[in-house]
Specification:
- With 113 residues, the chain is α+β, with helices and mostly antiparallel strands.
- Helix content is 37%, strand content 21%.
- It contains four helices and three strands, in the order αβααββα.
- The protein has helices spanning 17-26, 40-43, 53-71, 104-112, and strands at residues 32-38, 75-83, 86-93.
- It has a three-stranded antiparallel beta sheet, with helices on one face.
- A hairpin with a 2-residue loop joins strand 2 (75-83) and strand 3.
- Helix 1 (17-26) packs parallel to helix 3 (53-71).
- The chain is globular.
- The N and C termini lie far apart (65 Å).
Length: 113
């Protein structure tokens, strides 16, 4: 008996800035999160994007927060190219800083102030 399994595309639930912050706060060193699949530079621009305005704005917030987390030394940011204009944007958790016991929420509050 032959069984034909069709390949369904993975359902992607858009990642929010809150989701990213939660993941950064609890990820173990080496954990990997794909926070976007596409072409980030084009997908965050209002002209020529395939995303609705609300999704585009949230993606821009996620990208800025990922950059911030990388600047704070919490994650590494890498890209994996699949084909032209199709990349996976990955966040790789780094070991948490040991020198001070600072919570992620206190860092976010300090940035907001």
């Amino acid at each position: 008996m032959n069984v034909i399994a069709s390949r369904f595309p993975a359902v992607r639930i858009p990642l929010t800035e809150i989701d990213l912050c939660g993941w950064v706060g609890q990820a173990a060193p080496g954990d990997i999160l794909e926070y976007h699949r596409g072409f980030l530079a084009l997908d965050t621009m209002s002209q020529g994007t395939r995303l609705a305005e609300r999704e585009r704005a949230e993606l821009a917030r996620v990208a800025r927060r990922a950059w911030w987390a990388a600047e704070c030394g919490l994650i590494h940011l890498v890209q994996r190219r699949h084909r032209t204009n199709d990349y996976s944007y990955l966040a790789i958790a780094r070991p948490k800083p040991r020198r001070t016991a600072v919570s992620l929420s206190s860092l976010l509050l300090a940035e907001a102030a």
